[in-house]
Amino acid sequence: MSRPTRRQVLHVSAAALAGTALAAPVAFAGTASARPTAGHGHSEGHQAPAGHEMPEPFDEMYQGRHIEGWPADEGAPEHGHHAGHGGRAHSRSAPAGPHDGMDFVVRIDNDDLHVMRNADGTWISLVNHYETFTTPRALARAAVRELQGADLVPVVTG
Amino acid sequence: MAVRKNQADLTATEKRNFVDAVLELKRSGRYDEFISTHNAFIIGDTDEGERTGHRSPSFLPWHRRFLLQFEEALQSITPSVTLPYWDWTVDRSPRSSLWADDFLGGDGRSGDGRVPSGPFAFSSGKWPMNIRVDGRTFLRRSLGAGVRELPTRAEVDRVLAMTVYDAAPWNSSSDGFRNNIEGWRGPNLHNRVHVWVGGQMTTGASPNDPVFWLHHCFIDKLWADWQRLHPKSGYLPTGNTPNVVDLNDTMKPWNDVTPADMLDHTKFYTYA
C-alpha cells in the first residue's frame, strides 16, 4: 500500500472534518483560508467558539523520533464542502480511511498516526485508544514511548 | 444452552479446547477478520459523528453481537466451546492462572514487551500479528505498567448502581451506566483494563490479544448484572437520534440486528 501524499491526507481529513458536526467546522475553514497554504508550523491555533481550542501545530524530535502535528483542515479549505464521515449515508461497509474522523494530523517519522478528539477536548490515538491525552503532542509522545522504535504501518480495516 | 464460565473455573480440557479453537480460527484467517472489523469501528466511531461500536449507547449490544459471532466461530471448530469471562476485580494479578502458559500465556518481557511463552507467543509460530498498527509482529503485553491497578469490586458496584442506561449527548461525555462502564467517565472500568494489559490491547487492533474476548465477556456479564439490578431501566435512546443507534435501529456491520434483539442474553447463553 503506497503511503498517501500529504495533500491526500489533508483532503481526507478536511472532508471528514466538514462532515462531522464538530463545534465549528465553518469557522475552521474560514481561518484556514485566511492563512498561507505552505507550511504548517507557523500558524496560530484555532478557536472554536462553542467548543475547545484547536491545539497548536508542533514539530519536534522526541526520543529520537520526529513527531509533528497540525490542524487537519490547514491548506485544504477548498475541500471543505465535501460530504464527510458523519452522515447516515456514509457506508460503514467501506473501509475506514486512515484519517476518517480526524481533525488533527499527527505524524511520527512521516508516518500517519490516526488520532481522534473526544467531546471533552481530550485526544486519543490508534496506538493508545483507551487512554486520553490533553493535547496531540502528549499523545504523539506517548505513542513514541509505546512504539519502542517500531514504525507505524498503514491501518488495515475491515 | 451455552454456559459462559469464569475463566478461573475452567478445567484443563476446557482451556485447551478454547485455545485450540482460537488458534484454528487464526490459522484459517477468520480470526483476523474480527480484528479488522473492530479496528474499523474504533476508528470510525466519533463523538460528534456516527458512532456504533464505541463511545455510544450501542457499545454494549454491539460488543454482545460481536462476541456472539466470535463464539459461533469457535463453536464451528469445537461445539462445546463457549467464551469464558475474566473477572478482573478478583483475578487482578499478573500471577493469575489466566496468564499461565496453559492458557493465555504471561506478561511481556522487559525491553520489548514480547510475550515469551504460551500458545500465543511469537515463538509458537501460530500467532502472527497480521492486522497491526505498527511494524511489530509479536504479541506484546505489559501487565500493570500503563496503569497500576485494575478496577475494584467497589468501583464496579458503584457503576452498577447507576439507574439510567445512557444519556444525551450519547457519547464519551455522557453520564449514565454505559459511559461509566465503558470508562470515559467515572472510575474507568472497561478502558482501564485495556490499558492495564498493555501491548496490542491498548490499540485499535486490541482483539490481537485473545484476552480481549475474556475482558469483553465480563463487561457483557456486567451489563446482564445491571439489567437484573434495574429491571425497569431500559436501553436508551429509543428513537430519532442522529448518528446514534436507537433501540430498534439496526447495527452495522450486520444490518439485521438491533439493540432490542440483544437485550436478553438468555436467548443465546447464560452465565454460570
TrEMBL record, chain A:
Basic residues biased stretches: 82-91
Signal peptide annotation: 1-23
Highest taxon of the lineage: Bacteria
Alphabetical keyword list: Copper, Signal
Region (Disordered): 33-102
Assigned protein family: Belongs to the melC1 family.
Name of this chain's protein: Tyrosinase
Species this protein is from: Streptomyces angustmyceticus
TrEMBL record, chain B:
Single annotated GO MF: metal ion binding
Cofactor(s) in the UniProt record: Cu(2+)
PROSITE patterns: TYROSINASE_1 (PS00497), TYROSINASE_2 (PS00498)
Pfam families in the record: Tyrosinase
Domain Tyrosinase copper-binding: 54-71, 209-220
Alphabetic keyword roster: Copper, Metal-binding, Oxidoreductase
Kinase in keyword set: no
Record family assignment: Belongs to the tyrosinase family.
Protein name: Tyrosinase
